[in-house]
């Protein structure tokens, strides 16, 4: 992973729905890192920490599994979301109705994809990633049909006129 990738944070119990989000992000042209991309045998904690530090942004998927795990908040998801928040590039998505993100993240609006159909072109998904798309495009220069401005030419006046 490099600084041109999105880190996707989620609870493994939500993998079917998260897989739709992952595929949709990739269909939209975003390179995305997920922990399932790690090869066997690596020290996963060190890899996750390094990937998070290098990530352009963090997309966190809030659900009953990611907000509360075994009666308490999921430590890794909280850590991953905190790094996204610290970078000011946290993009939260809710995949269940009635989910309240942890207190630390209450000021970040979470897009509601609880009834999303899985289509990356669907308006719900496009609205969910609009800010990410705009920031990415502005900072990474990935506009496809960017109009090219013609340079201005000024005629010089002869000295003394």
What does this molecule look like?
By secondary structure, this protein is α/β, with parallel strands linked by helices. It has one domain (6-140): Rossmann fold. Helix content is 35%, strand content 12%. The chain has helices at residues 15-27, 44-54, 64-67, 75-86, 123-128, 130-140, and strands spanning 6-9, 32-33, 57-62, 90-94, 111-112. The protein has a five-stranded parallel β-sheet with strand order 2-1-3-4-5. β1, α1 (15-27) and β2 (32-33) form a beta-alpha-beta unit. It is globular. It starts with 5 loop residues before the first strand and ends in a 21-residue tail after the last helix. The model is unreliable at 143-154 (pLDDT under 50).
Search tags:
Rossmann fold; alpha/beta; 35% helix; globular; 161 residues; 6 helices; 5-stranded parallel beta sheet; 5 strands; single chain
Record the SSE blueprint:
Elements: E1 6-9, H1 15-27, E2 32-33, H2 44-54, E3 57-62, H3 64-67, H4 75-86, E4 90-94, E5 111-112, H5 123-128, H6 130-140
Parallel strand pairs: 1-2, 1-3, 3-4, 4-5
Q: How large is the radius of gyration? A: 20 Å
CATH class: Alpha Beta
Q: Roughly what fraction of the amino acids lie in strands?
A: 5-15%
Uncertain regions spanning at least 5 consecutive residues: 143-154
Counting structural domains, the number is 1
- Oligomeric grouping of the chains: single chain
Task: Give the H and E element order.
Answer: EHEHEHHEEHH
Ends distance: 61 Å
Give me the side-by-side strand order of the main sheet.
2-1-3-4-5
Mean pLDDT: 84
